[in-house]
Amino acid sequence: MLNRQPIFAAIRQQIASCADAGGRFAVMMLRARGLHEISLRFGYEQGEQAGEKAHELIAKSLRPIDRVFRAGDDSYVMVLPDMLSRNHVLLASARLAQAFEQPWAGADSPWQLRAVMGVALYPEHGLDADLLCRRAGMALDEAQHRREPCVVYQPHDTQVEIFYEELREAIEANRLQVFFQPVHDLQVDRIAGIESLARWTSPRHGDVSPASFVPFSEQSDLISVLTRWSINATLRHAAPLCEAHGLSFAINLSPQVFSRPGVVEQFMGALDIWGVAPTAVIAEITETALANDLELSVQVLRRLRDLGVRIAIDDFGTGYASIAYLRRFPATELKIDQSLVGTMRDDPHTSRLVSAIINMAHHMDLTTIAEGIEDQATQDLLTGMGCDFGQGYHLGRPEPAADFVSRFNASMATP
Ligand code: C2E
Ligand code: MG
Ligand code: MG
User: Fold this and answer.
1) Which of 230, 172, 163 minimizes the C-alpha distance to 203?
2) 211 lines ligand 1 (CB under 6 A)
């Protein structure tokens, strides 16, 4: 929790003096990695001492005009006046990173601390204390994610600020869109199904990728709202395709919803209402998301599979799925990640790896789907390796569900 009062007061003071003189300043958030572990290993008193030493170390590395505040258990906020350019900020952060690299004389422990920093600049990244602190915090998250010592906030970075109320309202008002991307049977070269992908165009942020708003939703109860919307919106377009043409459809599910009571009944109830056979549905779960609560996910997915729903491990090859984990997981399909598929054409090593994954999957009675096929050569390679299904820009880009359905129906009508 941010120790807000004194930090906000110092930032407001800077804002007031910049308003008069037109200057710039930086708000930096620093996390001392390892501080928490000192408390756990050596006791809270030692942890506290180390925290105070880190505070002194930061203050010593900065200028006398800079202010340092303890912001939480292992974090600090600095207000740095007169930061005329990003280079000034990067110099300060380099000094801090270096100070933490010195042998840690802070406590009677051999523990090494490391500084990770995020920075927001006044006025370009915010005009009030709250926004500046939040954006410094977002830059800090980004630095941790990228494993870099310091990141300066970037408004158009992958880190899109999505505001809870705005997204909730968009979902509830049905302003998200469903896109369909075709999945081809590679062995007979025809469309066998579709994958449903959510799209959001926000009036404030423009097109926001699901790679941003899905993980954001997963951190709150929004993921349940999004999942319910996604199931219903997909079924509305997909149910007639399943019935008329025997297509299957895949839907992405976040394991975060599995802890909600009645989730299986809700899913099956929706299929029932739309008259879709469970065997026509593939629930896709990303490999990395599973690591969080494997036991619970396995239980829920096993129930779905026993009711006939097919279960795909999405993005296989990017996470850490071990063989033991694959054995326990009730999957029926394996989706090979596009990072492998996209490089296999030019890299024989990756190509052999993909071939081995396909063989392994088949030995385990799993159907294989390659995602991210962008050219004919890659498609031919995968077909030759016996891969069952494929998906990618070369076979068809995601498009609004209604457009896909009318085009598909028209193509079926013409002989
Ligand atoms: P995913 O399930 O692995 O979906 C495949 C992603 O790859 C999609 O990105 C798709 O547009 C993109 N793609 C397809 N073919 C190609 C290709 O040939 N080349 C390249 N470079 N990319 C290709 P998208 O739509 O941005 O979705 C990102 C992720 O967001 C999805 O990855 C999925 O995990 C998640 N997602 C999307 N919609 C939903 C949803 O309604 N609910 C949940 N829980 N997750 C969703
Ligand atoms: Mg998927
Ligand atoms: Mg994928």
Assistant:
1) 163
2) yes
